[in-house]
Write a structure and sequence with these properties.
Layout: H1 7-36, H2 46-51, H3 57-79, H4 84-113, H5 115-125, H6 128-137, H7 142-200
Helix pairs in contact: 1-3, 1-7, 3-4, 4-7, 5-7
């Protein structure tokens, strides 16, 4: 007799692992971003070092912790399929984590939209040495700098929205798994009543 694969549970596990990958990306992004703040500025990293402080580094770390907490709640969902409390808790944590990640993505996207208006004040605050590095990195200053900054923030917000999409897919898998287990429980009770009736006749 072949082993029956529960496709709903399999899809849930795959989506859950992708969700964990999103949390790892958030963690690495926040850690690498914070580490880069302490690097000595040069021609190669000067633009990036000026833009990273405008990214939500600490909130990204907090978001990663929420993702890991939600993932840990998914383990009992798999190990104890009869207990629906863990599945409900996992669903609510996914909602919270998804909203959190979405807010981070929107904040970065907002920074991208206001890039050109914030570059001039940022330029004025820097020392002559930093301005010289910026001129070497992006000759013509404001135009090339604005394009670079928009692309920088755009890539981050796109990656963040991708993680939100994974959250939504996993939440859908949670709903499907909840329905699947509810149906299986109902069918099992029907079978038990049928077998009990057959024994009594």
């Amino acid at each position: 007799m072949g082993f029956a694969i529960n496709k709903v549970l399999t899809g849930y596990i795959i989506a859950d692992l992708l969700f964990l990958l999103g949390g790892i990306i958030l963690l690495l992004g926040s850690r690498l971003g914070e580490a880069s703040l302490h690097h000595e500025r040069n021609v190669e990293n000067v633009m990036r070092s000026l833009l990273i402080p405008r990214c939500p580094i600490i909130p990204s770390l907090a978001n990663a912790i929420c993702v890991f907490a939600a993932f840990l709640c998914s383990i009992p969902v798999i190990v104890f399929p009869q207990n629906g409390i863990w599945l409900r808790l996992h669903g609510w944590l996914l909602v919270f984590s998804g909203i959190f990640t979405l807010s981070l993505g929107l904040s970065v996207w907002y920074e991208a939209l206001r890039t050109r208006s914030t570059l001039q004040p940022m330029w004025s605050r820097e020392t002559g040495d930093i301005q010289g590095l910026l001129q070497k990195k992006k000759p013509g200053c404001i135009g090339p700098m604005s394009d670079y900054a928009f692309s920088f923030f755009g890539n981050i917000s796109t990656a963040t929205f991708g993680i939100v999409a994974i959250d939504a897919i996993l939440l859908l898998c949670v709903a499907m798994l909840f329905k699947d287990r509810k149906d299986r429980t109902r069918y099992r009770l029907i079978d038990e009543k049928y077998e009990l009736g057959m024994r009594q006749t």
